[in-house]
Amino acid sequence: ALTTxxxxxxxVGKSTLFNAITQAGAESANYPFCTIDPNVGIVxxxxxxxxxxxxxxxPKKTVPTAFEFTDIAGIVKGASKGEGLGNKFLSHxxxxxxxxxxxxxxxxxxxxxVSGKVDPIEDxxxxxxxxxxxxxxxxxxxxxxxxxxxxxxxxASLAExxxxxxxxxxxEAEKSARSLDLTEDEKKIIHGLHLLTMKPVLYxxxxxxxxxxxxxxxxxxxxxxxxxxxxxxxxIVICAKIESEIAELDGEEKKAFLEEIGIEEPGLxxxxxxxxxxxxxxxxxxxxVQEVRAWTFRQxxxxxxxxxxxxxxxxxxFIRAEIVAYEDLMEAGSMAAAKEKGKVRLEGKDYVVxxxxxxxFRFNV
Length: 365
Ligand code: GDP
Prior knowledge:
Blueprint: E1 3-7, H1 14-24, E2 40-44, H2 48-57, E3 61-63, E4 66-71, H3 86-94, E5 98-104, H4 120-151, H5 155-172, H6 184-191, E6 201-206, H7 219-230, E7 234-238, H8 240-246, H9 251-261, H10 267-278, E8 281-287, E9 291-298, H11 303-310, H12 312-316, E10 318-325, H13 326-332, H14 335-340, E11 345-347, E12 357-363
Parallel strand pairs: 1-4, 1-5, 3-9, 5-6, 6-7
Antiparallel strand pairs: 2-4, 8-9, 10-11, 10-12
Helix pairs in contact: 1-8, 4-5
The structure holds guanosine-5'-diphosphate.
Keywords: ATP-binding, Magnesium, Metal-binding, Nucleotide-binding
Cofactor: Mg(2+)
Pfam families: MMR_HSR1, YchF-GTPase_C
């Protein structure tokens, strides 16, 4: 399963956030595809549409979909040279598919900052530099292997060599490989290197309780936003401390607490949705009287593969999918009405599933 790693310097609030994630987290028993590991937190994907569908269909059971966050501890300056938990840290990042980078935007005299002052951009660059240096080593090694073959005019090696040179150049300028505008083909060529700075990233600005309602008043957050904008990365503002308190509450209690502090939804929900999107994940629904359920698929998947997520038999025996877009279904008011209006389509094996599709698969057993 795809996972996003939580990364950040010491004392920025990672553990506090990760605790909130596991507290709020889903029962792993309901999600057998998820990893059971103390460093992995399984979260349900908050999705209004699932509850609207439940109201519409009135099923016996409603099941949200879930995915994973991985807590990656131990980055310090010098990690790429093996400082701290250096190499271990880097190998853990290599295994995740996207990065949620937590930065400290709160002041608190009682909590030491590793570099002596709160400076989120310097923090981001400290970590990015370690990742850049690690990638540079990877790329240099690869260049040594490919260069000889490239000189002998081996076509594949030549193509790879060209991409590697481009990547090396940005890394030497201390920039991330993702900042290069590589074509899909070029990306494929270097995919096997699992470069750390190729992974998509979002920034989590951890602010104080007081700044949560007015993050625009927090200058640190503004700086993170500007930095992120240059990379086309998203910024999620949270207060980790409050999130860990929210995560302990349920139902009405939770609602009351959110109202009291004046926010509509937990910051964690925003983070979950942003991380899900960053991983290239999307949701389709099945809506029967027994069960209304959300399913996670990778964007770009075709109908048979998406059916295979429910059961391998669905993929093997796939015939057709009966599909109505969520919006169309809600507008029509019922499945029957949607059919009458011609909004329910029959799609074949080449159909690319869309986020929000409500699907009934037809298959042979
Ligand atoms: P980590 O080293 O990045 O995992 O950081 P921790 O989660 O252990 O947090 C370090 C310290 O900062 C702890 O004492 C937390 O209670 C405190 N902390 C974390 N988030 C916040 C926050 O949003 N506001 C304030 N004031 N303190 C926080």
